[in-house]
Every structure is written in structure tokens, then in C-alpha cells.
Design goal:
The chain is of the alpha/beta class. It has helices at 15-20, 44-54, 65-76, 94-108, 123-138, 143-156, 167-171, 177-185, 208-226, 239-253, 264-270; strands spanning 3-8, 24-26, 29-32, 35-38, 59-61, 81-86, 114-118, 157-162, 188-195, 198-206, 228-235, 258-261, 275-281. The protein is built from eleven helices and 13 strands. Helix 3 packs across helix 4 (94-108) and helix 5 (123-138) packs antiparallel against helix 6 (143-156).
């Protein structure tokens, strides 16, 4: 049977790729006071302009079990198999929601095949797992092989990023007030990374330029040691600097490097101006 991939909106996979590989998206939601909308339908630039203008940091919420059931049911009712890969279970309840949907559907469709994976990350570090798996499925690979391909990418993918300001981390309660204030005064920037499903601090440096330079150094060391399979840039509402970093990495590694926008659900936690690098090693 054919394997179909399902993921969530925080993968930030480009529309063309979603269409070409027939990847289904389940959207998380963004919640302002008195207003909620699906991330998938949001205009990213308008969203970031709004939070800068209004000074309100919204919250996010996971998809409903009903939405997940409907998405899976559409696939299994055609006699196809589902491989669903979602944002880290330590960052969102989306993965657990999918497990609940799977349990409900297997009672009605006991012969169905629904596999749910925790990506242990987000953004295109998640997206690369989905894309590789979807390409394998489209090539006719069976579930176990498709699933293993996704897990192999998960083990080798890295995501480092640096916020332009500590304000969003402070407001979100992800950094202590006193240390954050001192960090802001000294222009200290944490290099953040996704570590076993959670955002963690790799190290702290003075200034964004120094942080990006250090991320490139880490990338270069890993690429030299393990080879480089995938490389891309992420940015939050900073197309110019995202494109500039992608251009520099293209020259440095002699390959085409694209810049991808990060949407509201992830972006509201670290704020506009954030730059990051996602890469996957060969070994």
C-alpha cells in the first residue's frame, strides 16, 4: 500500500514541495485576545507587524483530535497508510493528539496502518524528515523503510539559531528576568539549539554577528567531520538578512542554500529578527 505523509504547520515546508510530494498539513492555531486563526492561513509578515505594532504576544494551540481524525481518515479510507511526523512532543501536544486520533480510528478501522513519529524538533529540522520520507514513499518504498529514513534524518539534523532581542524570551518566561536584563545591557546573545526535543542554550556570545559566526563555525566543523546532506537558513520576519546569510553559506559550501520564513507559532516565542541554520549531516 502507498504511504502518505502528514505533518503540522510548524514544519514550514514550502507550498510547492507540499504539492509535489502530496504532504498533508494539520495546522496549529494562533490565539489573540478574542481572535484565533490557523497558522497555515496566516500572512507571516502581517502577523509580525501586528505583534510589533500592538505589543501583544499571542499564544498558540495544538490541533483538535477531531481535525487529526479527519485528516487520517481521509487517507486510510482510500486504502493508503499514514506516516505522521509532528513537532517535538516536549514543545506541543500535537504528537499526543495524533496518538489519540490513531487510537480512535483503529477501533473503526482495525486493519489500518497509522504510524506517528515524534520529530523531537521543529521548523525545517522537522520538515527535512517529512520531505525525505515523502520522497521515499513516492518512490514506492514500504512503511518500515520510509519510517527508518525519517528517523535517520532525525538523528542527524541540527538546528541552531540566535534571537535579535531577548524581549520575547523574557515575556514568554523562557529566560530569567535579572540575567535577561544583564544580557540585554551587555548585548549578550544566546546561541540556541534544539536538544532532544527542547530548546537549549549552546553558548552565549556578545553580539548577533559573533553568534552567527560561531554557528557557521559549528556547521563547518560538523560538515568536515560527517559530510553535509542538507543545509538551509531560517529567519523570522527578516528576509534581507536571511537571504544574505543564505548567500554567504552558498558561497562558503558551494551549493544552493535557501532561506525559509518561520511562522507565527514558533516565531512568537523568539521574535522577529531571529536567524538560524538547519543542516543535516551525511553520517
Amino acid at each position: 500500500m502507498t504511504v502518505k505523509l502528514v505533518t503540522d504547520s510548524t514544519s514550514y515546508i514550502q507550498e510547492e514541495t507540499l504539492r509535489d510530494l502530496d504532504i498533508k498539513i494539520v495546522s496549529l492555531a494562533v490565539n489573540f485576545p478574542g481572535e484565533s486563526f490557523d497558522e497555515e492561513s496566516a500572512d507571516y509578515d502581517d502577523f509580525y507587524k501586528r505583534i510589533e505594532r500592538e505589543g501583544i504576544i499571542p499564544t498558540s494551540s495544538q490541533p483538535s483530535v477531531g481535525t487529526m481524525i479527519d485528516t487520517f481518515k481521509e487517507i486510510i479510507s482510500r486504502g493508503e497508510e499514514v506516516l505522521a511526523i509532528f513537532i517535538s512532543s516536549k514543545m506541543s501536544g500535537t504528537y499526543e493528539c495524533a496518538l489519540q486520533a490513531k487510537k480512535v480510528l483503529l477501533e473503526e478501522y482495525p486493519q489500518a496502518c497509522i504510524e506517528v513519529l515524534d520529530s523531537k524538533t521543529n521548523c525545517m529540522a522537522l520538515g527535512l524528515q517529512v520531505i525525505e520520507a515523502a520522497a521515499a514513499a513516492q518512490a514506492g518504498k514500504k512503511m518500515e523503510e520510509v519510517k527508518q529514513i525519517a528517523q535517520d534524518i532525525r538523528d542527524k539534523v541540527r538546528f541552531y539559531f540566535v534571537p535579535a532581542t531577548l524581549d520575547y524570551l523574557i515575556k514568554g518566561g523562557r529566560i530569567g528576568g535579572a540575567s535577561a536584563l544583564l544580557g540585554s545591557l551587555l548585548k549578550i546573545r544566546p546561541i540556541l539549539y534544539v536538544n532532544d526535543g527542547m530548546t537549549d542554550v549552546e553558548e552565549k556570545v556578545r553580539g548577533t554577528k559573533a553568534a552567527i559566526k560561531r554557528i557557521i563555525q559549528i556547521l563547518h566543523e560538523d560538515a568536515s567531520k560527517y559530510g553535509l546532506k542538507h543545509l538551509l537558513v531560517h529567519h523570522i520576519h527578516d528576509h534581507e538578512r536571511g537571504s544574505e546569510l543564505a548567500h554567504n553559506l552558498s558561497n562558503l559550501f558551494q551549493r544552493q542554500v535557501q532561506s525559509y520564513s518561520i511562522g507565527p507559532v514558533i516565531g512568537l516565542h523568539v521574535g522577529p529578527g531571529t536567524l538560524g541554520v538547519v543542516y543535516c549531516t551525511e553520517e
